[in-house]
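Project standup — Tuesday

K.O.: blocked on the structure for the chain from last sprint. Re-posting the sequence here as requested.
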Amino acid sequence: MRDTMLTDANLGAHKQLAERAADATTAFSRGLQGYRWPSQTQPYIDALHQHLQLRAAAYRRVAAADTVDEYIAAAQQVPVTTTLTAKVRESLGLPEGTTVRGVNPQ
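H.V.: unblocked you, prediction finished:
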């Protein structure tokens, strides 16, 4: 098993993962914007798009860290989850999504 603990030696690999997370978040957000949503859902999509842009920017700050301490500080500022996805599902009449214990939507 690979050692995944963040160290000076593997900081570059962790930064690459953060950059990939930013790219994936941006791609997902663009995908949401590329679809025509029902009028009751569009405001939630717009808000989610804005949230995802902030998340991608936060991941890019993590990727730009020069030290392990900077990386950790930046990583602690990444908004991991949001209640907006539940609101999108609700507006579409979909069942609730899976909840993850210990994760508090922001």
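K.O.: great, moving the ticket to review. Residues 11-33 form the longest helix (23 residues). Residues 1-92 form one domain.
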